[in-house]
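Hi Y.,

Following your request, here is the sequence exactly as I used it, all 435 residues.
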Amino acid sequence: MHIAKKIALFLGDLVLLYGALILTLLTRYGAPSVAGSFAVHLIPFSLIFIIWMFIFFLSDLYDLRTIKTSGEGLKKIASTTSIAIAASICMFYLFSGLFELTPKTNLFIFGAWFFVLDSLFRTTFARLLERGGHAFILLGETPLIAPITHYLAHNMHTGYHLVSHNISPSWGDIESLKSLVETQRVDTIVATPALIRESSSLMYSLLNLEINIVPLTNFYEMLFNKTPLEEISEDWFVENLTLHRPLYDRVKRCMDWSASALLILLLSPLMVFVALLITLTSRGSVLYIQERIGKHGVPFMLYKFRTMFYNNNGPLWTIKDDERITTIGKILRFTHLDELPQLFNIFKGNISFIGPRPERTELVNQYRAFAHYDMRHIIKPGLTGWAQINFRPSASLEEAQEKLCYDIYYIKHRSFFLDILILLKTIRYVFIPHS
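Below is the corresponding structure, written out as tokens. Let me know if you'd prefer a different format.
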């Protein structure tokens, strides 16, 4: 359902972009000239619309959590539209020979029309989601109920409304459940995995209600994009993880190798410049080589540009205003240029572009206290991953455990589509630090 809503948002924006173009031409040239003007503007603006949609995506306008009827939502649309207009002006003037237009005035008129249309569209869309949706019954007891109910109460756009919560349903509850289904138009039952296992015959009988029965783990993943480790056991991994995927793995390795080779070639002058900066501004080696844990728990040496003072020891996690980091190191970390040598790790096959981030051996030894931690090592680690774009860098055991929830989610759902999504989101966080 979430995917369908996102597709609806995407298609709505696409229609509104062309609608705003028509209104712009009507405003500027009048009705008699619209047909001819539209023919002239169609191809150039269609190319620009690709940039607009990309900017919308990077600005999280297709994240359903940003769909709000308040001023906050309108402010986000306004700021994103302003960025898109600025990018469009740059494209039209930098590549005037390609576009054969420099429509600065039309772009501002277009931006105003689009802001009005998109604000109305998203406000209406949010209200429809809040009023419609799915009534569901929650069965079983789990600590996850509190965050789920809190999230649903503050994010009406999900379209899910909790009708009833039965901690320990029995056969005597069947009739009351049937009554709720009929009177409250319930179409979904969400049940904890423990209840499904312990009361399988009861859950089987509920199928006669002709409604969806969803494991709470799946429901939680849909809402939060992470796996609730508190609710899963070893059998969950057996049932949900597909590890033998030869086509996916071979294609991904081929893309990793070719893309890393090309980037090493293209970025070698920049890497030489960074190496010179490090050499001239602080004592020590240019590279920071550190043992990390890779696929199947096999250690390897990870390469990064050195960002700390030579032979400086301290806590395993970096902290805010860390005095161990050099002035150049702060710039390299802010711009993520310190990560460039990892292209050689990708080329060698130690890591992939996308996957769970490889951790230091010392940290892994601590993290193994978490349930199912070693499951993150059943696939190749990556330069960036699902946890990195959804959660800040961990600075404690609690935060590391939270990131593990995202890593397990990625391992379960990994695909070319998800990898592309992570890659695009990473582009945003290169320029906009994630706090």
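DSSP finds 18 helices and eight strands in the chain.

Thanks again,
Q.
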